[in-house]
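Re: duplicated header lines in exported structure tokens

Our pipeline writes sequence and tokens for each protein into one text file. With two proteins the header for the second block appears twice in some exports. Here is an export where it did not happen, for reference. First protein block:
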Amino acid sequence: MDTAGVAEAIGVFISGWNDHDLVRHFSVFAEDADFVDVVGRRMRGRAEIFADQSARHAQRFAESSVRTLDLDIRMLREDVALAHYRWEMVGDRGPGGTGCGVRRGIFTFTLCHEAGDWLVVAAHNTESVV
């Protein structure tokens, strides 16, 4: 089972964020991906996700970075994986621009192996208070 390939895709997602390269960040999302963000807004399709998240990144996340607290990958089939990525973020300016301190949360990703690549077909981000 190809957990290394799944971890590599999640790594591209993380490094794209930290390098503030949102094209690379979302390059691991399928064209028809579904995404529920940390405040519960659902977006459909890479183009919609990219447009929304790029605007937010330019405003409040331009100086942010994330680090991995934990990455757990479970292969559901040879071509389908479930990944839980616990993250910690610093540098979020917050909605009012005054900063948010350290934030933590967890992404749940469903990935499919398509045309030689692992692509996120669904993602859900949740803020953690623990």
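Second protein block, exported in the same file:
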Amino acid sequence: MDEKSLKQKLLNGKKTERVIFAVTPEMKEALAAVAKDRCMSVSGLLTALAVEEINQSKDVVSAALIDVEVK
């Protein structure tokens, strides 16, 4: 799966799942500062970072996405 197709697969469609994790106040503040500098929300920043990381692991992710489609 090429980068564009993978990104479309990950970002298009109804968002029904949530990922929740704990961070320190310092990390929250740092993320907010980076997001503000890039004129985006913290959620958008985290999504962009996740997509970038997933794109670097295409072989693992592609197999997982194919498995999800089959189920």
